[in-house]
Amino acid sequence: MKIAVCLKRVPDTDMRFAVAADGKSLDLSGLKFDMSDFDGYAVEVALRLNEQQGPGEVTVVGLGPDAVQETLRKALSMGADRGVHLAAAEVPFDGLAIAQALAAELAGQGYDLILFGRVATDTGNGMVGPMTAELLQLPCVTAISHLDIKDGRGTAHRELEGARETVSFPLPAVLTIDEGIARPRLPSLKGIMAAKKKPVESRPAALGPIRLTVDKLELPPERAGGRIVGEGPDAVPELVRLLREEAKVI
Amino acid sequence: MAFAGVDFYQLDTLLSEEERAVRDTVRAWVDEHLMPIIGDCYVEGKFPKQLIPGLAELGMFGANLPEEYGCAGLNNVAYGLIMQELERGDSGIRSFASVQGGLVMYPIYAFGSEEQKKHWLPRLAAGKEIGCFGLTEPDFGSNPGGMITTAKETKEGWILNGTKMWITNGSQATVSVIWAKTGEIKDAKSIRGFIVPTNTKGYAAKDQKGKLSLRASDTSEIHLEDVHLPKDAILPKSGGLKSPLMCLTQARYGISWGAIGAAMACYDEAVTYAKTRVMFDKPIGATQIQQVRLADMLTEITKAQFITLQLGRLKDAGTMTPQQVSLAKRNNVSMACDCAREARRLLGANGILAEYHSMRHMANLESVYTYEGTHDMHSLILGQEITGLAAF
Ligand SMILES: Cc1cc2nc3c(=O)[nH]c(=O)nc-3n(C[C@H](O)[C@H](O)[C@H](O)COP(=O)(O)OP(=O)(O)OC[C@H]3O[C@@H](n4cnc5c(N)ncnc54)[C@H](O)[C@@H]3O)c2cc1C
Q1: d(CA B224, CA A187)
Q2: Per-residue confidence at B214, pLDDT binned at 50, 70, 90?
Q3: Is residue A224's pLDDT more than 80?
Q4: Residue B58: which of A70, A189, A196 has the nearest Cβ?
Q5: Which of A5, A194, B202, B212 would be a feasible disulfide site paired with B225, CB 3.0-4.6 Å?
Q6: Which residues on adjacent β-strands are paired with residue A154?
Q7: Cβ-based neighbours of A80, under 8 Å, separated by 6 or more
Q8: Model ipTM?
Q9: Do B21 and A77 make contact, defined as CB atoms within 8 angstroms?
Q10: B301 and B225, same domain (yes or no)
Q11: Are residues B280 and B352 in the same domain?
Q12: pLDDT interval class at A226 (50, 70, 90)
């Protein structure tokens, strides 16, 4: 199968974040970057499909500054075949602008599947996948936790609150991948060496007009330290009172 | 929480993208597969054999040897970073990889015939064969040139006799690189290397019991009693004490990186503990004494990182000298011993538990301080380099 996986380079979620001097963006100094978590699952799904279903090609597509190529190469070192870098000075917040650039790249290339992570771990919008599907006029299933492909049709599971939905769809299709579907493999050392020799094309991103902007970014207030209200059974009534009246959680 | 490493001077900017990718892969592997079990392995005195296939699959054995022999073909800095990350987990696991790559695959690669290389290297890289390196003897440790293990040439091949001590991977190895004298017992020039399958008649290994260090590593004694080998068991290009010493240079190079990993693990643990352990109504990290401890650790780790990165660049350029390796091994292991001990102390009573890592590293590093040339031996090597006078 010919599969495209769209990848976003995001700050590592293990880091401590600070707001930059402009008050509306992240302070990027000292941050480490990596592939957005859910995109890693999408890469794994693509690799496994082709391992199970015979030869195919996995193309990874990333939009943003040159550093995105490093993220693409990570996917290549996991086993993807080629990379496409859509160059842009920065990744806009407006998902539609991104989706337009991706749709322009992906249209007419004969992909059987176009995969995204469920949501990017930095902006958390979850809109680029469905919007790209819409622009390409393709069926779209979001946040899937399981996937079967047979005879040109797919079946996917979606985990709902307390229920599971099974959805079937024709190929080609756009899918956004939830975690838990297939744990992303680590790039092997040979894979890392091989990735150096795999092709990565770079061309300017045909971004759509940017209409959404972030005006303000604030970190949640520092959590106050804990408090010990007493010890043993005697403390329970007071604890219950505080949980009800002060914390308002029960 | 994933381990973030220690990089106070932005040394990452001096690493290539692949070097960082290799480091990150091994780091993630250690977090995922080694950290959850290492405490128990250590307490039970067991090497975690089940990890060998995973290590091999990622390509961690002999990773700096060429791809044509089934290896990853990495440069030496990337190789060093693998050792650093493995030893961040445990010196025993790093020892396993050092022996397999630096002391077994390397001599076959450097001194072996093309047939030997084609036969053994891909199998060792894939973890299908496990190797060990037999140089040290009960009465010849720092002075391996004095060894009394012999290899007598016969019409059919060779007969080996002798005893080797302190052999890492000794009991689990399927193949052993044994160093023996082919000539007069006084003649260190007659030392040659032999590839010995461990199921050969007359070969026996016995686990070294009662270790208080490197408990998650197999250390054994090897007995060779009339071990008959075919003619092609000899490593044809090995010759004299220089050959095993060349292997040791490889392994010592990896150890100088590994020690930094152990030191980072202890520093990381100490910093976290210092910030969270409250005594006298404030975190112990808010006291000047603990801050000095942490500042010393960070300083020494950073210095070691610079020495070692440059050592790696020299190795890749082909200009590294064994004396430069001695300086790095001596400095870094001693530094790591100090970090581990200080971290252990900072942790108070918790510091003696296997649940934390510092004391395990502290005990492990005592072996690392001793093997691959004791700290003292490296002082003497440097002393000789400086003065031109041997003081061994
Ligand atoms: C866990 C472990 C794993 C090992 N794995 C291997 C292995 O896989 N293969 C292998 O071949 N060997 C291995 N060794 C052996 C190791 O290399 C030796 O232990 C080391 O070379 C020291 O030898 P020794 O123990 O006989 O000490 P000795 O040489 O007896 O030294 C004892 C002390 O005397 C000092 N000393 C010795 N000579 C001098 C001198 N001239 N001047 C001043 N001081 C001196 C030493 O520094 C040391 O402090 C391992 C050892 C350990 C502990």
Answers
A1: 42
A2: very high
A3: no
A4: A189
A5: B202
A6: A149, A169
A7: A5, A43, A46, A47, A58, A59, A60, A198
A8: 0.88
A9: yes
A10: no
A11: yes
A12: confident
B44 catalytically annotated: no
Whether B383 is in the pocket of ligand 1, judged by its Cβ within 6 Å, is: no
Given pLDDT bands bounded at 50, 70 and 90, which one contains residue A13? Answer: confident
Tokens 């942490």 belong to B294
Q: Is residue B5 part of a domain?
A: no
Please provide the DSSP assignment of B167-236 as one string.
Answer: EETTTT-SEEEEEEESS-TT-GGGEEEEEEETTSTTEEEEE----SSSTTS-EEEEEEEEEEEEGGGB-T
If asked whether residues B152 and B55 sit together in one domain, one would say no
Q: Which residues of A touch B (CB under 8 A)?
A: 14, 70, 73-74, 77, 186-190, 192-193, 196
The strand pairing partners of A177, in sequence order, are A117, A144
Rounded Cα distance between B75 and B351, Å, is 37
CB A42 within 8 A of CB A151: no
Which pLDDT does position A230 carry in this prediction? Answer: 85
Asked if residue B294 and residue B180 are part of one domain, the reply reads no
Count the domains in chain B. 3
B309 and B381 fall within a common domain: yes
CATH number for the domain harbouring residue B145: 2.40.110.10
Are residues B89 and B106 located together in one domain of the fold? yes
Q: Are residues B205 and B266 in the same domain?
A: no
Ligand 1 nearest atom to the CA of residue B214, by list position: 1
Opening angle at CA A16, ends B272 and A37, nearest 5: 110
B369 and B255 both lie in a single domain: yes
| CB nearest to A188's CB, from B1, B17, B57 | B57
**A150-154, A177-181, B66-70, B282-286: range with lowest mean pLDDT:** A177-181
Of A70, A186, A193, which is closest to B72 when you measure between CB atoms? Answer: A193
Q: Does B386 touch chain A (CB under 8 A)?
A: no
Residue B69 is inside which H or E element, if any? none
Residues constituting chain B:
392
Q: Which residues of A touch B2 (CB under 8 A)?
A: 14
Q: Domains in chain A, ordered, with CATH?
A: 2-204 (3.40.50.620)
Distances (CA, A) of A158 to A142, A177, A180, A210, B184: 8, 10, 11, 31, 76
Nearest CA-CA partner of A176 in A141, A124, A148:
A141
pTM here is 0.92
- Is the C-beta atom of B168 inside 6 A of ligand 1? yes
Residues of A in contact with B75 (CB under 8 A): none
Residue B10: its H or E element: none
Within a domain: B186: yes
Q: Note down the domain range covering B48.
A: 11-125
Residues A160-196 have pLDDT tens digits of: 999 999 999 999 999 999 987 889 999 999 999 999 9
Helix, strand, coil shares of chain B, percent, nearest 5, are 55, 15, 30
Q: Which residues of B touch A30 (CB under 8 A)?
A: none
Is residue B2 domain-resident? no
Whether B71 is covered by a domain: the verdict is: yes
